[in-house]
Amino acid sequence: MHEISLVRNIFKTLEAEFPDTYQNIRNIYLTAGELSNVQPILMKNAFDAVILDEPKYAKTILHVEVLPVIIYCDDCNQKTPVIQYKFICSICNKPSKNVIQGEELLISKVEFEK
Amino acid sequence: MSQPKSNRASVGSVQCENTTLNLLKANDFVAKAIKDKLLSHNILVLNVCSSPGSGKTTLMQETGKRLKNKLKLGVLVGDPETERDAIRIREAGIDCLQIVTGGMCHIEAQMILQALDHFDYKDLDILFIENVGNLVCPAAFDLGEDYRITLIATTEGDDKPKKYPRMFLTSELMVVSKSDLLPHVPFSIDAVTKDAREINPDLDVISISSLNGEGLDQWCNWLQEKVKQKKSQ
Lengths: 114, 233
What we know:
The complex is a heterodimer of chains A (114) and B (233). Chain A has 114 residues and is of the alpha+beta class. Chain A is 24% helix and 32% strand. Chain A has a domain at 3-67 and 102-112: 2-Layer Sandwich (hypothetical protein PF0899 fold), CATH 3.30.2320. A 3-stranded mixed beta sheet of chain A has the order 2-1-6, with helices on one face. A 3-stranded antiparallel beta sheet of chain A has the order 4-3-5, with no helix packed on it. The longest helix of chain A is centred in the first third of the chain and has 15 residues, at 3-17. Chain A is elongated and about 55 Å long. Chain B is α/β, with parallel strands linked by helices and 233 residues long. Chain B has a 7-stranded parallel beta sheet with strand order 5-4-6-3-7-8-9, sandwiched between helices. In chain B, strands 1-2 form a two-stranded antiparallel ribbon. In chain B, helix 7 (189-199) links the parallel strand 8 (173-177) and strand 9. Chain B is globular. In chain B, 45% of the residues are buried.
């Protein structure tokens, strides 16, 4: 829904982090947890639309990886995946809201042309 | 600016930077600033979310009628356009400021921080933030609230929690609204509660009708209890 503003946020974040070199960025790797509601195809479409107005990113490609939701169970001391949005430990069935993966929205890697 | 913490490795002709740059960092930073600003005033801040048309504004009006002599209430209401909701809420005798998001599908923390400069919040017991009607995007934006409350109307269908899991995962309370229509619509409170608690086992559930008043005492008691807890913190 707000993919365009997310793409602009990516550029703002990279320009703040790499003020001298951001123009050499060729690949951006986005890591999106399943709960972030980011759809890879929509993000890529938004990215392609935004770079029409931002020629300095014309040679840049966005890669999006979606991570499944993982919770931690205090009783079992285990990390287990959340299947069909049932937030229960898959070993002991105890409910857990302790989400350790799945909410993130991160730029996990960038590649620069030398 | 200091060098980012990262592992540099050459791959062919490219140089890699492994990073953890959080795209919502700016919002989370501002949300923290809101919490800090409100901290010394002991105000209960509630972020009220739902689909469009499930009765958030009507519930604000009814809450005002019942609680305005007991508690000092304020509302910041977000909509893509118009001041209509703010006018309705002020008619119920509650201080209200409209946040026009200019087409945006959610409220961001920055909008709340700016709104607080134009709103007399210091003596409030409860500050409601009535979010833009949308069960997707608002779920990702922390507004510095104590609790998130999600309304779901009986006309929407009882399958919403599993379709919009993050909203229900991060809510403290689910309010089932328009309960007066239950005899006429295929909606089961048991089914919606079961689905929502599979996502969030600690979720409170209250069923209300702003039209005939059913459940509103329970809603007002929930609010008063949370205000009491906030004051004793």
